[in-house]
Amino acid sequence: MGKRSEQVGAETVGELLEDEYARSILAETSREPLSAQELVDRCDASPPTVYRRINRLQELDMVEEEQELDPDGHHYRQFSARLERVTVELRDGEYRVSVERTESDAVERFTKLYEGLR
Predict the structure, then answer these.
(1) Which one, 12, 16, 70, 111, has the greatest CB density within 10 A?
(2) Distance between CA atoms of 87 and 90, rounded to whole angstroms?
(3) Which SUPFAM superfamilies match (predicted)?
(4) 103: number of CA atoms within 13 Å, CB side?
(5) What is the full per-residue pLDDT of the chain (118 aa) written as tens digits?
(6) Which of 93, 99, 111 is nearest to 7 (CA)?
(7) Residue 21 and residue 46: Cα distance in Å, rounded?
(8) How far apart, in whole angstroms, are the C-alpha atoms of residue 2 and residue 101?
(9) H or E element that contains 45
């Protein structure tokens, strides 16, 4: 997978990473894709708390969502961490925060599909 880096607000990233549930969701989904219910269980949090943090992490593109199909034919969502590294630099009296993310699995699958068609 490739990497993508982006400058973001220091306060925004700091506030999010200061939150224990957001950190827990990132840690758990960095190991394997998980459903919201699995995150509720592993993070010892309520469903609304997990969904709020997932939404916030998605706003900063630190978590991606994928639809899965279970054996019964029902769709459910799984979440995977995209965050790879956060770098904070102090230069000339200003903080610069860079967030590196792994490339989206969806982008990677599309690229492979496209290359397979050529």
Answers:
(1) 16
(2) 10
(3) Winged helix' DNA-binding domain
(4) 10
(5) 455 555 567 778 888 889 999 999 999 999 999 999 999 999 999 999 999 999 999 998 999 999 887 788 888 899 999 998 888 889 999 888 888 888 765 555 555 555 555 5
(6) 99
(7) 10
(8) 8
(9) none
Picking from 83, 77, 86, the residue whose alpha carbon sits closest to that of residue 103 is 83
Tokens coding 17: 């990473």
Query: Are 65 and 13 within 8 A, CB to CB?
Result: no
Looking up tokens 């993070």 gives 43
For residue 81, give the nearest of 44, 45, 27 by alpha carbon: 27
C-beta separation of 42 from 29 below 8 A: no
Cα–Cα distance measured from residue 96 to residue 90, given in angstroms and rounded to the nearest whole number? 6
* Token pair recorded at residue 116: 């397979």
Could you give phi then psi for residue 27, rounded to 5 degrees? -65, -45
Residue type, 9: G
Q: Give the helix/strand (H/E) hosting 86.
A: strand 83-91
